[in-house]
């Protein structure tokens, strides 16, 4: 994985941590769901799913739980960035 992609994912993860700890409107936007039917065809890949796999936390719920502890979240991001996965 290139340095540029790793840097982008690191910045996405730090922004996610910032937004989730604030707990305001942005939190609802990133974790909320829309009413109605899903569209046909292959579903779009969500940023939360992509970050969960890159960080190695497994599920999205585990990722959201890790965000609450700032020091743990920084360690997870640093390890994922060093590994370059």
From TrEMBL:
GO terms for molecular function: translation initiation factor activity. The keyword Protein biosynthesis applies. Keywords: Initiation factor, Protein biosynthesis. It comes from the Eukaryota. The keyword Protein biosynthesis applies. This is Eukaryotic translation initiation factor 3 subunit f. It comes from Plakobranchus ocellatus.
């Amino acid at each position: 994985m290139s340095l540029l992609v790793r840097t982008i994912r690191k910045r996405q993860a730090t922004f996610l941590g910032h937004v989730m700890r604030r707990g305001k409107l942005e939190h609802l936007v990133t974790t909320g769901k829309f009413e109605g039917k899903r569209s046909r065809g292959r579903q779009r890949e969500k940023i939360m799913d992509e970050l969960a796999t890159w960080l190695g936390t497994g599920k999205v719920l585990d990722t959201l739980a890790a965000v609450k502890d700032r020091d743990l979240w920084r360690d997870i991001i640093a390890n994922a960035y060093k590994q370059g996965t």
